[in-house]
Amino acid sequence: MPCKPESARRARLLVTAALSTWGIEELVDAAKLVVDELLTNAIDHTRCRTARIAIRRIADDRVRISVADTSRDVPDMSNPRQDSEDGRGLVLVDALSDQWGYDRHRTWKVVWAELRTGASR
C-alpha cells in the first residue's frame, strides 16, 4: 500500500475481512487499532513509498499483523509527556497485543503484533 494516511482505511478493511473469514470477529476492534498504529508509524517515521500489510493466522487462537517498510529504523516505545498529542501508538499496540516486535533485514524491517482470541488468553 502507498505510505499515505488514506491507506490506513484499506489496512483496517483488510484485517476485518481476514478475521471475519476466519470466524474470529472478536479480535476485529483490537486488530484494526493495531494495524492502524503500525501503518501510521511507518508513514510518520520513515520515508517509505509503500508498506506491505500482512495478516496471518499462525495458530487456531492467534493472528499476526505485520507492516513492512523500507526503513531499518527500529520502533521506539517512548514515554510521551502527559500533554503530548502523539507518541502513544506503540503503547497502545503493547496493551492490545499478546506480544509485538520487529524483524530487521538488510534494507527493510517488519513490525508485527500478535493477538490471541479471548478463550486462549
TrEMBL record:
Keyword check for Thylakoid: no
Query: In what residue span(s) does the Histidine kinase/HSP90-like ATPase domain sit?
Result: 2-112
Keyword Flavoprotein in record: no
Keywords recorded for this protein, A-Z? Kinase, Serine/threonine-protein kinase, Transferase
Pfam families per record: HATPase_c_2 (PF13581)
SUPFAM superfamilies per record: ATPase domain of HSP90 chaperone/DNA topoisomerase II/histidine kinase
Q: Which InterPro entries match?
A: Anti-sigma-factor_SerPK, HATPase_C_sf, HATPase_dom
- Entry protein name: Anti-sigma regulatory factor (Ser/Thr protein kinase)
Specify the species. Answer: Streptomyces griseochromogenes
